[in-house]
Write a structure and sequence with these properties.
Blueprint: H1 8-24, E1 30-37, E2 40-47, H2 48-72, E3 82-83, H3 93-102, E4 108-109
Parallel strand pairs: 3-4
Antiparallel strand pairs: 1-2
Helix pairs in contact: 2-3
């Protein structure tokens, strides 16, 4: 299955299914993405580890402004013991694990 070979309706459907899968992974460990294209059914099992690997380049880009904000606030990582998450993505286990790794310990998510 090649994204570039999909028509615009199929691309929109795939993006919708991917979003639903991402949301499902906030409450379950594994989700199945399934999509019909023509006479074919495509299915893939996604877990949070796979999602983490897919998101690795994006998460790396997130780390730079987070580190800069901590530095600009004249704080050190050790001074942070809780986080107030904002937005739906903060519910994702992948994001929580990324922040814990970035800040080198498990934080309280308020």
């Amino acid at each position: 299955l090649s994204y570039s070979k999909l028509n615009s309706k199929e691309k929109a459907a795939l993006l919708r299914i991917a979003e639903q899968t991402k949301i499902a992974l906030t409450t379950v460990n594994t989700a199945i993405m399934s999509m019909n294209i023509g006479d074919n059914i495509y299915e893939v099992s996604i877990d949070n580890q796979i999602l983490s690997n897919i998101m690795k380049p994006i998460l790396h880009r997130f780390s730079l402004p987070i580190k800069r904000a901590i530095k600009d606030a004249k704080l050190t990582i050790d001074m942070i013991d809780a986080i107030i998450p904002v937005g739906g993505s903060c519910k994702m286990p992948v994001i929580k694990r990324f922040i814990d790794i970035l800040l080198r310990r498990r934080l309280l998510w308020i």
